[in-house]
Predict the 3D structure of the following.
Amino acid sequence: MKNITLAIETSCDDTSISILEDIEIISLKTFSQIKQHAKFGGVIPEVASRLHSDFIFKIIEEAIEDSGISFEDIDRIAVTGGPGFANTLQIGITVAKTLSLILKKPLYDINHIEGHAYSAFINKTIDQIPKKAIVLIASGGHSEILIKNEWNFEKIGGTKDDSIGEAYDKVSKVLGYGYPGGPILDNISSTTTEDEIKCPVSTLEGYQMSYSGLKSHVFNKSKKNNINKEGLIKGFQTAAIEQLILKVKKAIIEFNINNVIIGGGVSANSLLRSKLNSIDNIKVYLPKLKYTGDNAAMIGYLSAIKIKSNKIKPVDLKLDAEPRRKM
Ligand code: KG4
Ligand code: ZN
């Protein structure tokens, strides 16, 4: 075995470890803290960092065991340096630095959003990644549109308030459903036979997006007596996804690019996937469902393809969390 990477992701509420051989994932183990945060209706950073430190060593052991390698086989460490919660990032970084120091192996610092942008290509060779593409990152922390040019990304727009994932989570909470709201509301919307209650799509100019107006609209409607909740959820999902689709379509025309890459937890959404797939004359790159949410496989994969392409250098033990890091 050669070029073995151990990758660590702790930016939010998933303690995730992946082992790769060259650019191929040979193990991925994730401890999701969803159950522990569900009672609060969202992620509590202090609780998250405590759980990361309680579970990270067990998850590392599980990933190592599952991959069939031993610690001595590890050639390099990759870790999410930001963006994310400062305290949760710091746990992964401290463990990564310790491994790098003890094993005397190089340490690589990976951007979490960039990881999502490459999650559709995990286990694919570098030549299968389009050089030019429109990239949509839709998650609990981000709703961003970027233009990919080789290894560079230029942000052309994003939300000015809530991210789309946050809107799903808050609407779910207010309507009395669980956390995280995305999969629950997606499931209700796609299975309900109730009539859709129309909701407004934000009309901000350019590539600016907003989800607070839609969220308030749904909150206000939900206070009405006898409101049909399932119809309202269906209307919310249609409007939430339509905003993303309109911006992607605009970028396809304006930038004359016909590759669209999507990543982040919301890329699991069934309506978003079907709407993107029905846009004519474009190629859509969607992550496998297991790689849509936060995971260390995307961190390891991105580090491995960058190392292979000479696009990244190791960092030293001064590495610090960068909670607000941009692309
Ligand atoms: O990427 P992710 O795991 O964490 C962040 O980096 O934020 O994204 C989590 C978000 C949550 O807000 C969750 O509700 C949303 O992704 N999500 C979905 C779906 N599955 C997860 N939103 C809409 N539809 C889904 N099927
Ligand atoms: Zn994420």
The first strand starts at residue 4 and ends at 9.
